[in-house]
Write the structure tokens for this entry.
Amino acid sequence: RKEVEQDPGPFNVPEGATVAFNCTYSNSASQSFFWYRQDCRKEPKLLMSVYSSGNEDGRFTAQLNRASQYISLLIRDSKLSDSATYLCVVNGGNFGNEKLTFGTGTRLTIIP
Amino acid sequence: ETGVTQSPTHLIKTRGQQVTLRCSSQSGHNTVSWYQQALGQGPQFIFQYYREEENGRGNFPPRFSGLQFPNYSSELNVNALELDDSALYLCASSLWDRDTGEQFFGPGTRLTVL
């Protein structure tokens, strides 16, 4: 079983639609959780951290369910600029600042 | 921009050669991690350096080695290059004392092995 598993994708979604990504992780000792965004041939950039209480940043909402070891990302009112690969990321270290484990990523294309 | 820089941006080598990739961390950060990203995959953790010592290593053979310098910059060395080493190599810097686990990535070095 992969340490971090994501929806296979790709997702092709019309502009303005709502899209949801899901992710599961296998290490129950994981401390920190993130969604990173990666544009084509660019480096990953932090989109948002994910907290147990759930958190929202504008059109983006992230949820964490520790009991189910499940992470989600919801994008509302999608824009053309949201087209990218979205990476689910888990920090597996006991301290919290150790290796990041990435999912394979889900490619999103917003269609005009 | 994250303030993390990497050099070179692109590199072409042949099988069996050796390569050194360089990374300058963001000002104030003391930890550097290296990742390998093959085409169509997520980044895979190679190793991390903190206080000039290796602090954790992923599933990579010993021909992948690294260094961290007193100014917190870092090098990744790969010996006896193989075709499968062709990938984007990403450096990420962070501050060890923070417990959030957030890391900031450089633009990467794209290595092609022929």
User: Anything to note?
Assistant: The interface with chain B takes residues 4, 31-32, 34, 42-46, 49, 87, 91, 93, 95-105 of chain A (CB under 8 Å).
